[in-house]
Amino acid sequence: MLEQPLSSEVSATELYALTADGWRIQMTRSLDPSRLDRSRRPVLIVPGYGMNGSIFVSHPGGTAMVSYLAAQGLEVWTLNLRGQGATAPVNGEAPPPSLRSYAEQDLRAAITTVLDRTESVQGRLDVLGCSLGGSITYALMALEPELPIGRFVAMASPLRWEDVPLLLRLPFRSRRLARLMPVRGTRRLAGLAMPIAKRAPFVVSLYLNAKNIDLEHAAAMIEQTVEDPHPRVNADIAKWMRAGDMVLRGVNVTDQLRRRTEPLMVV
């Protein structure tokens, strides 16, 4: 059976962060009241491309990341970027998703909310970014030199594109083509790929590590976690791949990150 999202000892509270450009960012704070260590920094987990934050609260056949971290005494936060989960625009004038809005608006609002609502006494937070979630964290760290991050863990998060995998190079070879990529029904297509992945794991290698996932139950996880990517985000990624470095607001993210001194772990 698919493991319950959170262990019985972990309590979860849903909160919303409001961005300056009119989006309500869905967030969840999880902690184990009997083990919480308020002297430690809270952890914010940032989801990646075509996924939402629920992937961190359930695991097919294992312990969920949120449950594990909470059991170590940490206060754990997850968020859904615009276009993910229950995150929604306040009105029809809110701009669509983009790499810049993910970083400058969604992630920035989430960090502010964590620091405003945390039970920790540290005044800073640690960030764990998965895939594109780590990349937009790189971006915000480059744009805001005083960002209150203690430590940063980047999991499979591109910073600079040099040798782009063929499966990514083809659909993202131009911004125009990337905008035209079909984006609806991604969850259904991912579910259809699971039976094939049992015989040919490489089919899902860009999204799942078949060695660490129980493919018998992965389809249930996909029903909760996969989201349709936005055409504007696809176009932004295509531009980034062609340039090599991500450039936002005229700032080269790779170059600017060299000035940061926070501990960084790359997985």
Can you tell me about this structure?
With 267 residues, the protein is of the alpha/beta class. It has a domain at 1-160 and 246-267: Alpha/Beta hydrolase fold, catalytic domain (Rossmann fold). The protein is built from nine helices and ten strands. It has helices at residues 65-71, 99-117, 132-143, 166-169, 175-180, 186-197, 215-225, 231-243, 253-257; strands spanning 11-18, 23-31, 43-46, 76-79, 88-89, 125-130, 149-155, 247-248, 251-252, 264-266. Strand 3 (43-46), helix 1 and strand 4 form a beta-alpha-beta unit. The two termini are 29 Å apart. The model has no long low-confidence stretch (mean pLDDT 85).
List keywords for this structure.
267 residues, alpha/beta, 10 strands, 33% helix, globular
> Low-confidence parts lasting 5 or more residues at pLDDT below 50?
none
The biggest sheet, with number of strands, parallel, antiparallel or mixed sense and barrel status, is: 8 strands, mixed
- Sketch the topology as an H/E string, one letter per element: EEEHEEHEHEHHHHHEEHE
Mean pLDDT rating:
85
Over all CA atoms, what is the radius of gyration?
Answer: 18 Å
Structural class: alpha/beta
